[in-house]
Amino acid sequence: MTMTMTYNDLPISDAAGNELVGWRDVTGNVIEDLEADVPLPLALVVVQCAGSVLMGLNAWRHQWELPGGMIEEGESPATAARRELFEETGIEAGRLTLRGVAEFVLEPDARREYAIVCSLTLPNVPRLTPNEELTAFMWWNPSSPEPDAMSPLDAEIARRTAQ
User: Fold this and answer.
1) Which of 74, 76, 116, 160 is the most buried (most CB within 10 A)?
2) Does the global pTM surpass 0.85?
3) Which of the 8 DSSP states describes residue 93?
């Protein structure tokens, strides 16, 4: 099934003043596509099943977000994405598809950072494991309005990544 998405114009801001300022669709090795001095500290995963995207309720920010987290020293972005996905949801991912690079300006210091965005399409809804970081889960259709307390930045990344 192919969904037709309407993208919002960038930049998009959240309540904390963080902004999604850029999106680049990518193929191949993303690291080689970026300049050497671009910080790439974050990996996000858009998990899709039956036309919906998995969002987790972040325990500290109290908002619905995509699974993902920090890339550790010596770790590839794909390895970080798989590790974070497992730690936050219990989903063990084999092959992830590289989909894009999201560019952010993050507060409080207007720090510019980039996140690798991968996707995983599942044939069936998996058993999910709430934890101290993501305390609940929801399946959200990116062609529908954002629910209350959803990160508008993550929602837009999901829209641009969902197939």
Assistant:
1) 116
2) yes
3) -
Tell me, yes or no, whether 1 lies in a domain.
Answer: no
Q: For strands 19-25 and 12-13, give the pairing.
A: antiparallel
- Split into its structural domains, the chain has a count of 1
CA distance linking residue 133 with residue 18, whole number of Å:
20
- Which amino acid belongs to residue 162? A
Q: What is the DSSP string of 33-57?
A: HS-TTS---EEEEEEEETTEEEEEE
pLDDT tens profile 38-73: 677 999 999 999 999 999 999 999 999 999 999 999
**Is residue 37 over pLDDT 70?**
no
**Residues 161, 25: Cα–Cα separation, whole Å:** 9
CATH number of the domain to which 129 belongs: 3.90.79.10
Q: How confident is the model at residue 27 (pLDDT cuts 50, 70, 90)?
A: low
Residue 3 lies in a domain: no
Report yes or no on 12 lying in a domain: no
**CA distances for 127 relative to 54, 58, 124, angstroms:** 12, 18, 9
* CB 106 within 8 Å of CB 41: no
Q: Which of 96, 81, 102, 99 is nearest to 152 (CA)?
A: 102
Hunting for tokens 């507060």 — which residue is that?
107
Is pLDDT at 29 greater than 80 in this prediction?
no
